[in-house]
Specification:
Order of helices and strands: HHEHEHEHEHEEEEEHHHEEEHEHHEHH
Number of strands: 14
Radius of gyration: 22 Å
Structural class: alpha/beta
Mean pLDDT: 96
Length: 416
C-alpha cells in the first residue's frame, strides 16, 4: 500500500492517522451468551467450585488443547506453581526459565522453594534458546519452563531434545498461547504439563482464572488433590492426603469461559491475517525486524505481535519516543514489552528469596546478551486487540509506522 509521506506526526501536533481514540478494539468483549452464562449460574444455586460449569469447561478445554486432562484453577500464576509442586519440585531444586517473561513465571518457582536459573532467549523469536538451556543445566536442575511468548510456540523440537537427553520434564507456560499449534498439535499437549491464564487481557478471558493441561493421568490426579486442599483424588472425604491449597475456580468464571471459548479460533484467524499483512509491510522497513518464520508453527495465536526496533536506522531515535509517536497515531496499543528484566528486580535479591530458596541470587546478565538487547533496546509489542480489525485497520498501523519514520529527525530533536 502507499502511505502518505511527510505528514506531521501526531506527537508533534499533527493529525493522527485515526482521529477516533482509541483506534483499537476493546477487550474483553461480552454479549448475550455471556449474560446467559451468568444468569445460568445465578439461578443454579451452585456458585462455588467443582460444579457443572467447571466440569464442562474442563472437558471442552482439554478437547480444545488436544490434551487428555484440563484442570481449571484460580489463575495462571498458581497453575505454574501447582505443576511444579505436582512434579515434586521444591527447596534446593533449580528450574530453568527464560528471563523474557512475566514475573509470575519466576515467582511461581520461588514460591515452591526452588531457584530460578535464567537461560538466554533467541533474538528472532523472543523464546527460550535450547542452546542456552543446555549450558544452564546442573545436577540440581529439575525442570525446564518454556514460555510461548505472545502466542508463538517455543522451539519444541529443540527444547524437548535437551529435556529428554537429561531426563528433565519440559513444562509449557502457555499463558499467552491459547490455540497456538506446533506441527498441528495444540500447545498444552506438548510438554509434561502446561499452564494457561484467563486474565482479562488474554485471548481467552474470564477476567481472572487459569488452567493446567496434561496427558499424564497420575500427574493430573496429584494436581487435582493439591488444588483441592490435598483431598484424595475424586473423593468427598475431607481428609488431606497431601499438602494442598484451595486453587479451585468458581462456576462464574467457567461459565464465562465456556461462552468465550466459542470465539477463540475465529478471533485467532483474524489476528493471523492481520499479522501476515503487518509482516509483509513492516518487514520491508529498515528500522523493523519481524519475527522469524517457522513452518513448524502451524498457528500463532498472536496474543502479542512482537517485533524488533532498530534505532540506528532512524537516526538513533530512541525506542521510547518511537513507541510514543506510534501510540499517538491512535492505531494500536504498543509497548516496549518486558523492558525491565526480572533479574534486575529487587525480589530476587531480597531476604524473602533467601528464606524461600536457601540461596542467594547473582545477576546473570553477562550470560544473557540477547535478553539485554531485546529488553533494553529492540523489543516491541502490539497487543492482540490491535489485530482484530479489517485490512483497512491494518493499513493504518502500517501508515503510522511510515509516518513516524518520516518525522524521526524532528521527533528526536523534540523529545530525545
Amino acid at each position: 500500500m502507499k502511505t502518505p509521506s511527510m505528514q506531521k506526526a501526531a506527537l508533534l501536533g499533527g493529525e493522527p492517522v485515526r482521529s477516533k481514540s482509541p483506534g483499537y478494539f476493546p477487550w474483553p468483549v461480552g454479549g448475550e451468551q455471556e449474560k446467559e452464562a451468568l444468569r445460568r449460574v445465578l439461578h443454579s444455586g451452585a456458585w462455588g467450585t467443582l460444579g457443572k460449569e467447571c466440569a464442562e469447561f474442563a472437558a471442552k478445554y482439554a478437547e480444545f488443547c488436544q490434551a487428555k486432562h484440563a484442570l481449571p484453577v484460580i489463575n495462571g500464576s498458581t497453575a505454574i506453581e501447582l505443576i511444579l509442586r505436582g512434579l515434586g519440585i521444591g527447596y534446593g531444586d533449580e528450574v530453568i526459565v527464560p528471563p523474557y517473561t512475566f514475573t509470575a513465571s519466576v515467582h511461581a518457582i520461588v514460591l515452591t522453594g526452588a531457584k530460578p536459573v535464567f537461560a538466554d532467549i533467541e533474538l528472532d523469536t523472543f523464546c527460550l534458546s535450547a542452546t542456552a538451556v543446555e549450558k544452564a543445566i546442573t545436577p540440581r536442575t529439575r525442570a525446564i519452563l518454556g514460555v510461548h511468548i505472545g502466542g508463538r510456540p517455543f522451539d519444541f523440537a529443540a527444547l524437548s531434545a535437551v529435556a529428554d537427553k537429561h531426563g528433565i520434564p519440559l513444562i509449557e507456560d502457555a499463558a499467552q498461547a491459547h490455540g497456538s499449534e506446533w506441527k498441528n498439535r495444540r500447545v498444552g499437549s506438548l510438554g509434561v504439563a502446561a499452564a494457561f491464564s484467563f486474565q482479562q487481557s488474554k485471548n481467552l478471558s474470564g477476567g481472572e482464572g487459569g488452567a493446567i493441561t496434561t496427558n499424564d493421568d497420575e500427574l493430573y490426579q496429584r494436581l487435582w488433590s493439591i488444588h483441592h486442599n490435598g483431598r484424595a483424588w475424586n473423593s468427598a472425604d475431607m481428609t488431606s492426603t497431601c499438602l494442598g491449597t484451595n486453587a479451585r475456580l468458581a462456576e462464574w468464571q467457567c461459565a464465562i469461559l465456556l461462552a468465550q471459548l466459542k470465539n477463540v479460533d475465529a478471533c485467532s484467524e483474524v489476528r493471523t491475517r492481520t499479522a501476515a499483512r503487518l509482516d509483509e509491510a513492516l518487514g520491508k522497513m529498515p528500522f523493523i525486524s519481524v519475527m522469524k518464520k517457522d513452518e513448524r508453527i502451524t498457528r500463532n495465536s498472536y496474543h502479542l505481535y512482537c517485533f524488533r526496533y532498530h534505532a540506528e536506522a532512524l537516526g538513533n531515535l530512541p525506542r521510547s519516543v518511537f513507541l510514543r509517536a506510534v501510540q499517538a497515531e491512535n492505531v494500536a496499543i504498543i509497548s516496549a514489552g518486558y523492558c525491565q528484566p526480572i533479574y534486575e528486580m529487587g525480589i530476587l535479591y531480597s531476604d524473602d528469596f533467601k528464606r524461600m530458596t536457601g540461596s542467594t541470587f547473582e545477576n546473570p546478565k553477562e550470560r544473557l546478551p540477547n535478553n539485554e538487547t531485546i529488553a533494553y533496546k529492540e523489543g516491541c509489542w502490539m497487543y492482540q486487540s490491535s489485530l482484530l480489525g479489517t485490512d483497512d485497520d491494518s493499513d493504518k498501523i502500517i501508515q503510522a509506522f511510515a509516518k513516524v519514520a518520516d518525522n524521526a529527525e524532528e521527533l528526536k530533536h523534540t523529545f530525545a
